Amino acid sequence: MKKIKVYSTPTCPYCIRLKQFLKENNLIFEDIDVAADRAAADEVVRRTGQMGVPVIDIEGELIIGFDRERIKQALGIAA
Amino acid sequence: MTEADLLIIGGGPAGVTAAIYAARKGLDFLMISRDIGGQAAWSAGIENYTGCQVVSGTELTAQFEAHLKKFNIRLRQPETALSLAREDGRFVVRGEKDTYRALAVIAATGKRSRELGVPGEKEFLNRGLTYCAVCDGPLFAAKDVAIIGGGNSALDAALQMSRIASKVYVVDSAPVFTADNILQDRLRGPGNMEVLHNTSVSVIHGGRFVEGIRVSRGGEEIDLPVQGVFVEIGLVPNSDFAVIAGRNGKGEIRVNCANETDIPGLFAAGDVTDVPEKQIIIAAGDGAKAALSAAKYLTAL
Fold it and tell me: The whole model's pTM is what?
């Protein structure tokens, strides 16, 4: 199984939807709350060059936002 | 090309309710939407939806989705309608992914954040500028930020950011806030807040990220060194695709009390219409009315 990290805030609807989507597909992921973890917040801004959440890290491939199609592709989930 | 008797465009409270009614009426219909929940999904707490004393936008959206799943609904998501035309007695909707043909259409496309329309706005989107304080706010911890606007959502954002950011400027183009008094009272509490009335944003500047904004107050130009800009200046209707329908000066689709537009077979519901109040419960109710009107229209064809 691919290693998945989600950078999120507790209050952002798309973060919640993204995590729901992963759970529905029985995928295990590490949830990083950037509201609580300042270093992780800085890291995600530095790595993506932008300041929006959610960001999903799939084995080092970064996808910004809840981009269902790209996430499905990266994870090899059928439509 | 995909065909259905009825096409419902939009998945907020109006579109979802229309779909539920259309399903119960046994109509042949298709729903296309960018997402489910619409603007309601972004509400932190909803306290005026009958039967729910307090519900978050996320919870309500999950309930909408669960309710839709009870029926075997044809849903294309994400999909965005780009244009609407009348061809050979049918409506033709061109979307980003497909073209749809239907005998009747319900436009329930809601509203989106209004843009400032100043240089730097597009360039710095997600690089310091955001339209969703509730989402991205925590990324601006210990930074200086500016909230643009003077309504409820602007003051909500300002109060939220006063607990996270170092310094919060509230830049309001009007002489007084239009937000509810209770929010204005709360705004006087935090010590890191500075309010500028009669002030408009001229430009957003920076390098890789926002480094500041220039604002103008009665001819005086002021530079605010901020790393975050939260635009909260209201909403505009998503009606650009529906230019064939009659719209008011705000771009809202005109409807009568049966949610009929000026084009037979084209119905509209929720925040995209000229309905006087924009509320979740009103959008839901109008979605129901639009579906029932569409059902009558289809039966009479």
Answer: 0.82
